[in-house]
Design a protein that fits this description.
Layout lengths: L6 H8 L2 H24 L1 H9 L30 H29 L2 H24 L5 H14 L3 H12 L5 H8 L2 H16 L6 H20 L28 H4 L18 H6 L13 H5 L4 H30 L3 H29 L2 H22 L4 H31 L11 H26 L4 H18 L1 H23 L1
């Protein structure tokens, strides 16, 4: 007697073909970028172990003259250890920022699956090499700097590739919400990276890098075997990137009305013409001339790219300062252990998950991506001030403030790097040319990565003068990010006012 078909299999069979492949693409790209961020997080956890408070560990067993740094890892055992940590962060982030502008150009011209897999395997290699410095007893600063530079360059393969893949599969309709949920991979990766690094930080900190390196390389190999770049590759229907109102010509006729055969269902297995997706897969494809990839300057001319890129520069400055310096701040101010500080810092990323989803949902409902970002940035500034002054008054207050600050700081960052990048990469001015997604994404995230490099560098230089000054710098960056979006916000508000006026006029008529 045979058992009934498994419930999960029945569910999969009930889903339309397009939905199954969309789900597979979302899950795979989610896992890919989760592993990218998982491999970036250990450095922030391990910093407090490279230069711990040795006097709290008891007398120096080696009887050296310097009893306060006997347990530190050279070359980070001097008084300039914060500057050296800042150099490590910037070696990665400057290389990442420079490489990102080039990465998008390659991403438009190379198969995304090969590009993503190669980048993930190399990222795993360089992440593991940093940790192997512990087992090989390496105490030369330049070794760690070179590894960080190489890792920063190869990690630029990730973001343009995964955003391009998701943009190829999903249209504009619910893009903010879908990508807001999907973008939680950033925070999930940071949380998992903190927990994995924290498990070995006190015993053998090298494993805090080696294990994440193995994980990202393994996920990269999985991606090679299962990732589908374009819906057309498996006979699925491509998404609609613009609403009908975006494509109306002067005569009021949409492109779909002009060519009914071009309309296909995004959800069901049948197109309007009655041809199944399976038939489309099996039937020979007519040769179609692919559009040329957009140039760097051409991408800059897309309306909104410059404004959102500059806004992301300051928004990412704040986010990455927290990413790299929050555990050390908690250790210094709240006097927790390295593991406890790493665990507590994950709450900032929990807030980031909620903020990304909330920002995507609101921007979908209102149609105002820039306005949503601006409001969250305005509220974030006083919250950062409050966290610095009352955030360590108790564990309950600290937890609440970390979640709120994480939501307000990472919400705009998540929205700009996902839904906004995909919107601009499929802008109606491109006339259907999808060969701009990777380039636009790389320009926006590359500009943001300049801020990501500046933030930790400035934190390393300013923190010796007091943590208050670091937070003043972060608040100023938030305000500047908001101001840079002012023109786009005004345009969105005028659009809403015009829409309301047209509705009133229609009712009166």
């Amino acid at each position: 007697m045979r058992a009934a078909l498994a419930p999960g299999v029945r569910l999969l069979r009930a889903l339309p073909r397009d939905s199954r492949y969309r789900g597979l693409t979302l899950v795979l790209t989610f896992l890919c970028y989760t592993s990218y961020h998982l491999s970036r997080k250990p450095i922030s956890i391990v910093k407090s172990q490279l230069h711990p408070n040795c006097s709290a560990l008891g007398p120096n067993p080696r009887n050296d003259s310097n009893s306060s740094t006997w347990c530190s890892w050279a070359p980070f055992d001097g008084d300039n250890y914060k500057e050296l940590f800042g150099a490590l962060d910037n070696a990665f982030l400057v290389a990442y920022a420079i490489g990102m502008f080039i990465s998008g150009i390659f991403g438009e011209r190379l198969p995304l699956r090969y590009y993503l897999t190669g980048g993930m395997v190399l990222s795993g290699l360089f992440t593991a090499l940093f940790g192997l410095g512990y087992f090989w007893d390496i105490h030369v600063l330049w070794y760690f700097i070179i590894v960080q530079v190489c890792n920063g360059l190869v990690q630029t393969t990730g973001w343009p590739a995964v955003v391009a893949c998701v943009g190829n599969w999903f249209g504009k309709g619910k893009r903010g919400l879908i990508m807001g949920i999907w973008n939680s991979h950033t925070s999930v990766g940071n949380i998992l990276g903190s927990l994995i690094a924290g498990a070995w930080v006190s015993s053998a900190w090298g494993l805090s890098f080696v294990v994440p390196g193995i994980i990202i390389a393994t996920v990269g190999i999985i991606c090679f075997f299962f990732l589908v770049e374009y819906p057309e590759d498996v006979g699925c229907s491509p998404p609609l990137h613009h609403m009908a109102s975006d494509e109306e010509d002067a005569g009021g006729v949409t492109s779909n009305e002009k060519d009914p055969e071009a309309v296909s269902s995004n959800e069901g297995p049948l197109s309007i013409s009655g041809q199944s997706s399976t038939d489309r897969l099996d039937s020979p494809k007519e040769p179609v001339e692919e559009p040329e990839a957009i140039s760097f300057l051409g991408a800059l001319r897309i309306p909104g790219v410059v404004e959102f890129s500059l806004c992301l520069l300051f928004a990412k400055l704040v986010s990455y300062t927290f990413l790299y310096w929050l555990p050390l701040y908690i250790v210094n101010v709240a006097h927790f252990s390295a593991k406890e500080a790493g665990d507590l810092s994950t709450l900032f990323d929990v807030g980031g998950i909620l903020g990304g989803i909330f920002a995507g949902l609101i921007s979908d409902y209102t149609g105002g991506r820039a306005t949503t970002c601006c409001v969250m940035l305005v509220v974030a500034a006083p919250m950062l001030f409050l966290y610095n002054h009352i955030g360590q008054n108790g564990i309950g207050t600290s937890i609440a403030m970390l979640i709120v600050c994480g939501a307000l700081v990472n919400g705009p960052y998540a929205l700009i790097t996902t839904a906004v990048s995909a919107d601009l990469g499929t802008h109606e001015s491109l006339k259907g040319n999808a060969k701009a997604l990777s380039t636009v994404t790389a320009i926006i995230d590359g500009t943001g990565s300049v801020g990501a490099a500046l933030g930790p560098l400035l934190a390393g230089l300013i923190s010796p003068t007091g943590w208050n000054n670091v937070f003043y710098m972060l608040i100023a960056a938030d305000v500047l990010a908001c101001l840079l979006l002012a023109r786009v916000v005004v345009k969105e508000v005028r659009g809403w006012c015009g829409c309301i006026a047209r509705k009133r006029g229609f009712k009166e008529f």
